[in-house]
TrEMBL record:
Ubiquinol-cytochrome c chaperone domain sequence ranges: 34-169
Pfam families in the cross-refs: Ubiq_cyt_C_chap
InterPro entries the UniProt entry points to: Ubiq_cyt_c_chap, Ubiqinol_cyt_c_chaperone_CPB3, Ubq_cyt-c_CBP3-rel
Family: Belongs to the CBP3 family. Belongs to the UPF0174 family.
Protein name: Ubiquinol-cytochrome C chaperone
Higher taxonomy: Bacteria, Pseudomonadati, Pseudomonadota, Alphaproteobacteria, Hyphomicrobiales
Length: 181
């Protein structure tokens, strides 16, 4: 029985790999240099949240067991956030309070981005992304175009492809003013 704790769980490995691919995509330098997400702790959270929302939207549209994968992926995200807080030196007694704030922020972003992504309303999404990801009153038009293109590109991806190769996100540099010429 004790040896079962040390066996590799293929499902857990697949979720960890999927989450790592999403996290890697959220760290692409072009998101920060070209699309204006601040290269800060908050900016990195915003980028990761955006990429998680896009990935979870894709999973939501797929047949079972995609719903279980989405739950496991969300759990992996929150485990990572918890570990990050602890790594930054947040005390054990404060972590649950901070995690409540992280969860509220994440779900608030999902609620703000989802309708605009569904309706492909670039102006509405740009306002929400400007407010959240850029921390500005100015709309984030380039980032909104990137997110809409990513959302569109993820439509029709199968669960097998998503688990095997991860979500394919576009190159952020293609959505700068120069990239649109």
């Amino acid at each position: 029985m004790i040896f079962s704790l040390f066996r590799r769980n293929p499902r857990r490995m697949a979720i960890a790999t999927l989450y790592a691919r999403i996290a890697d995509a959220s760290r692409r330098p072009g998101l920060y240099a070209a699309l204006g997400i601040p290269d800060s702790l908050e900016g990195r959270f915003e980028s990761l949240s955006l990429h998680m929302v896009l990935s979870l939207r894709t999973l939501r549209e797929l047949p079972p067991p995609a719903d279980e994968v989405a739950k496991d992926l969300t759990d992996a995200f929150f485990r990572d956030m918890d570990a990050s807080l602890r790594e930054m030196g947040v005390g054990d007694t404060v972590v649950p309070k901070r995690m409540k704030k992280v969860a509220a922020a994440f779900y608030g972003r999902a609620q703000a981005y989802d309708p605009a992504l569904t309706s492909a309303d670039v102006a509405e999404l740009a306002e929400a992304l400007g407010r959240n990801a850029l921390g500005s009153d100015a709309p984030a038009m380039m980032l909104a175009r990137y997110a809409l293109a990513a959302d569109k590109g993820l439509k029709g991806v199968t669960l097998d492809v998503l688990l095997e190769s991860g979500p394919a996100f576009p190159a952020p540099e293609a959505f700068t003013e120069e990239g649109n010429r």
